[in-house]
Amino acid sequence: MNTLIGLLIIAVGSMGQSSSYVPINKVKDWSWENFWLTQGVFAWLVFPVLGALLANSAPELLEIYKAHAGATWQAIGYGVLWGIGGLTFGLSMRYLGIALGQSVALGTCAAFGTLIPAMIAGENLFSGQGLVLLLAVAVTLAGIAIVGYAGSLRSKNMSEEERRKAIKDFALKKGLLIALFAGVMSACFSLGLNAGIPIKEAAIAAGAKEIFAQNPVTLLVTIGGFFTNLVYCSYMNYKNKTAGEIRKTAGPVLINNLLFCALAGLLWYSQFFGLGMGQSFFEPNGVMMAFSWSILMSLNVVFSNVWGIILKEWKGAGQRAITYLVIGMAVLIFSLIIPNLF
User: Fold this and answer.
1) Which of 63, 70, 180, 185, by CA, is between 20 and 30 Å from 108?
2) Alpha carbons 115 and 183: distance in angstroms, whole number
């Protein structure tokens, strides 16, 4: 029962993340660099700070970070690398759409983000629990590959006009390369969470409930990611001469943009808030705990493709492409239960 509760909590967070790019479409009159950084302020600073404060008070958090300075800076450092993945992640959606862009990037992210921490922990991937973990990740990648194949069929079956209508800047080859790179770098978020385990343990020792104990670590990783995005968006402001764009916005448009950016940030953060809560229901050293990162990525792929269908990105793709899409999503859902079959 605890495992099911954990899965449901992670699923709710995943649904939020997969919906986070929808509110951005409602932002008006702002260039990419301005709405991206604005939603990032909420996603990577405001809500992670609030989440961390659910675990411990501000003085306690500062003391924990100070006492575990090595883990703190390591988590932030991985966050900086993850921020590069986050930037290119947005571009992958621009060139491939929500469905295919998230599928490829999250698939790569799932594999690296699950297996590397297991290897760092000394897990033997070819026996016992390690073999089950490897099998579950392999099935996850198979499901994502099928979804990716469905995306390639869609590209072949749609006319150029249909592709441009569904995804304005559609570019398959460029988008795939960017999505793969984004997935590798995005896996650094998982490595950051892994590096912050001593902080999580210290938060619990200081009185944090286990269900919120990962939030202080998540904050460190997102701070690192915010720094990367701040540098890049500032450069784009300088290059495109858009630095004063937000300041010049006023009235209903400003309120509209801030509200939708805040909503996008909240939805995005919900995936890691839900991941930490869901993990608290898993056995600490069990396969489900080790596989939880892939669970989140798998569900993100499933829900992102649901949004792709809702937003008519698959319109005109053909029956064969839709069939493979459904099969791929079914395989991903099946991968979630593999650790409980052994």
Assistant:
1) 70
2) 14
